[in-house]
Write a structure and sequence with these properties.
- By secondary structure, the protein is of the alpha/beta class.
- It folds into 2 domains: 33 residues; 101 residues, Immunoglobulin-like (Sandwich), CATH 2.60.40.
- The chain is 17% helix and 48% strand.
- It is built from 1 helix and 7 strands, in the order αβββββββ.
- Strands 1, 2, 3, 4, 5, 6 and 7 form a 7-stranded mixed β-sheet that branches.
- A hairpin with a 5-residue loop joins β1 and β2.
- The longest helix has 25 residues.
- The radius of gyration is 26 Å and the shape is elongated.
- The N and C termini lie far apart (86 Å).
- It binds calcium ion.
Length: 143
Amino acid sequence: MAGRSGLPGGKLRFMEIYLALLFGIALIAAFSGCEAGSTRAAVTGTLTLPAVANFTYYVWVENDTYAAVAETSGVVAASATVDYSISDVLYGAYYIHAWVDDDADGATEHEQYYGGVTVNPPLAPNAEVPSSGTVVFNITFSY
Ligand SMILES: [Ca+2]
């Protein structure tokens, strides 16, 4: 009644606006850490072959349906290892899938998943990519 437009109601309105402003500031503070770039990391590692070779390698970061979301490839001379690096991978759980063609015929001889057995992937995505920084997944070809 008369109290609605009196001082107590005015104080209440002021408190509501004040709390709404505080809530807005808190939201801005909470989400300011989520700017572009902080949800992605670099995936790196070393591929190790059974023997020294001249080879072409391919590394795919695959999602839970085995679709590549990021990849790299390269050519290596006279080595049994190569360091690979894939930048800007969205955080999450993935499979890391690598192949090598070591006789230059365009077909791969060696195939290996990180944490898998020969050509078989692990039972679930096992490569946890963080939201920033660099994560290392080394892969040794088992045949
Ligand atoms: Ca080949």
